[in-house]
Amino acid sequence: MSSPAVPRGSGRDAITRAARESFAERGYHGSSIRDIAARAGLSLSALYHWHSGKQELLTALIEESTAEYFRRCDEALRTAGDDPAARLGALVRATVEYRVSRQVESTIAASEWRNLDPADRERLDGLRAAASRLWADIVADGVARGAFACEHPDDARRAIVAACNAIAHWYEPEQGYEPDQGDEPDRGLAVPDLVDRYTAIALRVVDCR
Q1: What residues does each domain of the chain span?
Q2: pTM
Q3: What class does CATH assign to 1-51?
Q4: pLDDT tens digits for 31-60?
Q5: CATH of domain 55-205
């Protein structure tokens, strides 16, 4: 008789890791609650002690990772001072570092958001809107104070956020930057260099003076 799988850490942490792996590999609909429990090294009854089902797992995973993103943004902005360019750079840094360190969660949130129950999606949409306001307020403040000269602040904000968020889909920690066809080879780009590059891009997009 085979021995049961050994739980990978505490029950809640093991379930979270197992759900993250399963959603990343198989997608939400391709993952079963039984498979998640097996990956966690737990019985179904033990899993149900922590979560009511697969939907609650998806919601908790997205909510936890989003809360961490806000913590990083708040910490970065607290030390950035009042200068609009410095504040924009701080938000770029927090976002780039988050997308690199939480690539799996970022990808799951982007691809599985549509599979949230309507009530959960509506609630978490509020967190997304709050993140958008962080960026919008910084860009608007820079324009109002003459630090940014972009003619279309909303478009500038959307372009910067989209570029930073896309890092989660292509960055490979082992290799660094993976250029598109036609780009000069640039492997091994470290995260601080990636931050510097995207900060410079963001400041160009807002036409920083």
Answers
A1: 1-51, 55-205
A2: 0.82
A3: mainly alpha
A4: 999 999 999 998 888 888 888 889 999 999
A5: 1.10.357.10
